[in-house]
Amino acid sequence: MSVFREHKTTADRSASDRRRHKKRIEDALKQGIHGIVADESIMGQNGNKKFKIPVRGIKEYRFIYGDNSGKQVGSAPGKDIKRGQKIGDASDDQAQGPGRKGSDEKGEEFYDVEITLDELAQYLFDDLELPDLERRQLANINNEKLKRNGYRSDGIMPRLDRKKSAIARIKRMKAAGFDPDKAEEGETFPFHEDDLKYRHYKKKEEPCTNAVIFFIMDVSGSMSQDKKFLARSFCFLMYQFLRSKYEQIELVFITHDMEAREVDEEAFFTQYTSGGTIVSTAIELTREIIDKRYHPSSWNIYTFQCSDGDNFASDNVKYLEEVVALKSICQLFGYCEIDPDKNNLAYSYESGAYQTIYDLLQPLKGRNLQTSYIIKKEDVWKAFKTILGGVEKDGG
Amino acid sequence: MDYSLDDLMQWDEKIWDIAVNKYKLDPYEIEYETIDYYEMIGAMAHHGMPSMYNHWSFGKAFERTHAMYNLGMEGLPYELIINSNPSIAYLMRENPLPLQILIMAHCAGHSDFFKNNRMFKNTRPENVVQRMRAAKKRIQSYVEDPTIGIDEVEKVIDACHAIQFQTTKHGLRRRSQDEIRDELIEELKKAKEENDRSKQTKLELRLDTIPLEPDYDILGFISENAKLPNWKKDIIETLRDEGQYFWAQIQTKVANEGFSCAVHYKICHDLELPSELHLPIIKSHNQVVRPHIGGINPYHLGFHIFAHIEKKFGWEECLIAREACHDGSFIRQYLDEELCSELNLFSYSKRRNKSIVIDDVADEEGWKNIRDELATSVGGGSIPVILVEEVRRNGELILRHEHDGRDLDADHAHKVVDHVRSLWGDRVRLLARINDTLTSID
């Protein structure tokens, strides 16, 4: 005998399981970022560009049989089959043959998650707790702006509002009972001084939301393609992060060996020269460009420098002077050292040790000067956080 | 819903009468719950269990089914019934009446199979619902324990899931190390009395190894021999129990579904339904037992084997088969040349050049090979056999794959060994023959 009943509808039972599953996907997404940033040109892309990220890590592994899994049995549609007959090709994905079931069970559970740059940045930065950072380093510069603020009956001629003035005159004319159609010849109703309306402006302090990012890259002989990839990932994160904080961002790319030049994004990541390194030239050029185009009173200025730490020893003092001058006008100066090559470094006679730019900058570290280093790609995220001074939620 | 619970109850009464009196079935009482499609997807994610511990994998299962259903790629299963006493089964409100009749008849078959098939002997269906509910509570308490937390708990469950079905063959009870030791010591005593030197030495050497005999129940072995905090041991034991509970169903998929299809087919015939009810039932039945070209549909294969058994030996033999068989023995015993040929079965394999080629067709020469391939790979045979071979002096756990002509997937094996290591808490190594080479995976 059986019992029948309506199922007691409880709260959505698997809701919390689905939440945990979602979290796993998001975690996996974050790991997928290296694949993206090493790809194509991304910095200048708008936020709607979509990427496919293969998401791993949510696969459930068990012992299963592999490729060489022996014979399998299936049902044929009819009798017209014979031994040795080829019925499919395992190397062909489209094969509708009996092999399909087997490969399904092996279950390549790659979730190709399609995601826009904006969403990706969201995922990445959601988990970043940036203590005081926004207030401190992203402190918006206030800018005086003139804002319209109603009309006044006195003012200067350039601010005369013709429409408002005409309306005022018509009002007065109606009130006076004057009808231009019935008016006698020569009789007019001229503007009175009280009709004239002037636009009124008020000075208002507006937060300035413009930012400019200077990316500086050492393209001398020692910066290999691998190092540039790491630098690129780092720059990408910085760009994405700041982009989510400002309405408008301009990018300036500067490369240097023994001299500095402003280049476009493509050249920035691909240029390669064989010369030596004089880092101060790049900082000098940055300051020049700021002077000409990005006055600190109306621009938030960020400078990020990527280098493998090498510099002519004779240039070190000049470089430090330049950095001190630059950091005083920057919201943030971040220096990221990429995989320094110990064989290739200047020897410091004072300390008796090989010294990189990273070492050089340590005494200057402070509120708006941060340093970090990247040896392998897993360090990129860490370097990003260090330079922004953030900590990740969940301690992760 | 153009019918009431009362209607269902009346149909069920008739079904039950035929099942018990005409076909001599002996099912558990069944509790039917009516649910909507969304609740059905939720119930499926939890394998039909009324309560289930929390784990992200159930969320994943839900999302997957839900997505497939919405895309129209997959229908929902007609029936979902669990092996409990009483059995709990779900009826989707969206189903039309004929389909509900078919499902109820089908469930009578499943419930009878659960109660009588010997693979289910140790599944303790009388309290599985309570066990699961208690397990959910305990696991939740570990999640909420600030010294443990959800990440740790998930890690252990992940690892247990990976080896949950690495268990004793055919639901045999695992013998503890102590039991085996006592037995060996007993034998040793006897050997000493008989002054059998070589036997004595052999037994002494054996007594010196862990495990004393190869252990197929990896979770059972770890739970017994690893140093574990109580909560971890509890989760391992709980998931081991769950694994053994579901193992019975994995091993009997073809026989269980085949038997239930045979039962619903016969009962629906005997109900002498008006054609507006009977025709939709026939249609659904044909849909369920259609062959999957190039693969095996357990409903199709099982239904036809039972029909064949009845034709050859009578219904009594069907009842014996449903009691005694798991899928392997079921196929070995009852799939003959005639049926093999009728079902157009063939075997195939992938060649070195990646092409898929037919090896055998169901003729006089080939049918036995097909039967044997099928018996080996079906049901529990789809899961590679791994055993605990040895714990070395340095604490390293050695696992071995019992090679039966099929190689392990090395990628997956690596990941599973990582899981085992996290449970065992020391080094773990798996020995496997892959591409004719003895491979060590660690």
Per CATH, the class of the largest domain in chain A reads: Alpha Beta
Query: Which parts of chain A are unreliable, with pLDDT below 50 for 5 consecutive residues or more?
Result: 92-110, 131-139, 391-396
The helix tally of chain B amounts to: 18
- How many beta strands in the DSSP annotation of chain A? 17
What's the quaternary structure here?
heterodimer
Average predicted confidence as pLDDT of chain B: 92
Number of domains of chain B: 4
Q: Termini separation of chain A (Å)?
A: 55 Å
The total number of structural domains of chain A is: 3
Structure, described:
The complex is a heterodimer of chains A (396) and B (442). In chain A, 31% of the residues lie in helices and 25% in strands. Chain A is an alpha/beta fold and 396 residues long. Chain A folds into three domains: 19-31 and 46-59 and 104-123, no CATH class; 133-140 and 209-395, Rossmann fold (3-Layer(aba) Sandwich); 145-206, no CATH class. In chain A, the strands form five sheets. A six-stranded mixed β-sheet of chain A has the order 11-10-9-12-13-16, sandwiched between helices. Residues 92-110, 131-139 and 391-396 of chain A have low confidence and may be disordered. With 442 residues, chain B is α/β, with parallel strands linked by helices. Chain B is built from 18 helices and nine strands. Chain B has helices spanning 5-22, 37-45, 56-71, 97-116, 128-144, 150-162, 177-193, 197-207, 218-225, 230-251, 253-270, 275-288, 298-313, 315-324, 327-334, 337-342, 367-377, 410-424; strands at residues 30-35, 80-82, 87-92, 345-350, 355-361, 386-391, 397-401, 428-434, 437-441. Chain B has a four-stranded mixed β-sheet, with helices on one face. In chain B, strands 1-3-2 form a three-stranded mixed β-sheet. Chain B has a two-stranded antiparallel ribbon with strand order 4-5. In chain B, strand 4 (345-350) and strand 5 (355-361) form a beta hairpin. At the A-B interface, strand 1, helix 1, strand 3, strand 4 and helix 3 of A face helix 1, strand 1, helix 2, helix 3 and helix 6 of B.
